[in-house]
Design brief:
- The mean pLDDT is about 95.
- The chain has about 190 residues and is of the alpha+beta class.
- It is about 25% helix and about 30% strand.
- A hairpin with a 5-residue loop joins strand 5 and strand 6.
- The chain has a single domain, classed as Alpha-Beta Complex (Peptide Deformylase), CATH 3.90.45.10.
- It starts with a strand and ends with a strand.
- The chain is built from six helices and seven strands.
Length: about 190
């Protein structure tokens, strides 16, 4: 089932997610619905707060990004990044490393806005998968970036929080319009209020 994406301005996007246990009600259906919602929205990641759940859960698929790259040259820009598709439950970032690099990020909850955001090259993260098996893995490149973007969601942060105050103030009107539902998207959204 395709779920509505919560728009900028919704309080759930600013909450720190709660940890969950294997007995969380309807978890396997929720995860299946999140995958369907993410792909329907042409996203590469989706966090539970974006579907109005204040829990520490997100999904991501960077494999599709690499599959859609035009040529090997573009792929070669991300050495060591094999891509990854998975479910992250109760994730905790243990370390970030490497140089910061800029990439033009967007967010399903903040449609029609893309900005260059600086993030570090690698992330070491501990998480549980959909079967609550614990993993500690290091990711790099685009995969690390997507993970960090989604991780921010379960920490109550948005990618626009990384913008300089002037840049953010220039976006104020667009952000207000989004929160009022004055945005045209080709996926289901829910708006605050």
């Amino acid at each position: 089932m395709i779920l509505p994406i919560v728009a900028y301005g919704s309080p759930v996007l600013r909450k720190v997610g709660k940890e969950i246990t294997p007995d969380y009600p309807g978890l396997s259906d929720l995860i299946a619905n999140m995958w369907e919602t993410m792909y329907n929205s042409n996203g590469v990641g989706l966090a539970a707060p974006q579907i109005n759940r204040d829990i520490r859960l997100f999904i991501m698929d960077s494999l599709q990004v690499f599959e859609n790259m035009e040529d090997d040259e573009e792929r070669d820009e991300y050495p060591g990044d094999e891509g990854y598709k998975g479910v992250f439950i109760n994730a905790r970032v243990l370390n970030k490393g490497g140089d910061e690099w800029a990439y033009n990020e967007g967010c399903l909850s903040i449609p029609k806005i893309r900005e260059d955001i600086l993030r570090q090259e690698t992330v070491l993260i501990r998480f549980q998968d959909e079967n609550f098996v614990e993993h500690t893995k290091e990711f790099c490149g685009l995969t690390a970036r997507i993970i960090l973007h989604e991780y921010d969601h379960i920490e109550g942060k948005l990618f626009i929080d990384y913008l300089k105050p002037l840049k953010k103030s220039l976006l104020k009107r667009k952000l207000t319009d989004i929160s009022k539902g004055k945005v045209d998207v080709d996926y289901k959204m829910s708006f605050p209020g």
